[in-house]
Design a protein that fits this description.
alpha/beta, three-stranded parallel sheet, about 40% helix
Length: about 160
Amino acid sequence: MPRELRRITRPVAAGDYWLKSGLRRYLVREVFNAILVQRPAHGGHLRDAVKAIDDTLAGMGDTYSLIIFPEGTRGDGYEMAPFKGGIYALAKAKPGIELVPVFMENLSRILPKGELLPVPLISSISFGKPITLADGEHKKDFLGRARQAIIDLQNT
C-alpha cells in the first residue's frame, strides 16, 4: 500500500493476540499502526472496542480507512465463519459509515494461522461496492448482507 494511504488506514486487531510477545507488539504498533481491541471472548466488551475505534476515527479527520476482520478471528481459509456483531455496532455508532467488502484470495497460504512471517505467494484482492446500515435494519439481516457481499466477491 502506498505510504500516503498507509497514513490514513488502520487495521483493527485483537490485543490478546498481538500483545503476547515483544516482536508482535513491535509489529502491531510500529509497522501496522493498528487499533488494538480486546475481543469479548477474551474479556473485552463490544462497547469498549467500538469506543476505541470511534475515538481513533475522530482523530483521523474526514478521510480514513479501517481494516476490519468481521469474523473476529482467523478462519481456516476455506469457509468464512459467521460475522460477529462488531461491524453492526460500529455501523450503528457511526451512521452513514461506508463498509467496503473485500475478498483476499489465498491469504491463508500467504500467512498461515500461527505463523509470523508471510510466504511470498500470488494473491488477489477484490473490492465490492460500499454498504451502509439501512434505517431500521436488524443486526442479523445486516451481518448476513455484509457476509453475502464478500461471498459474492469470492464467487466472481
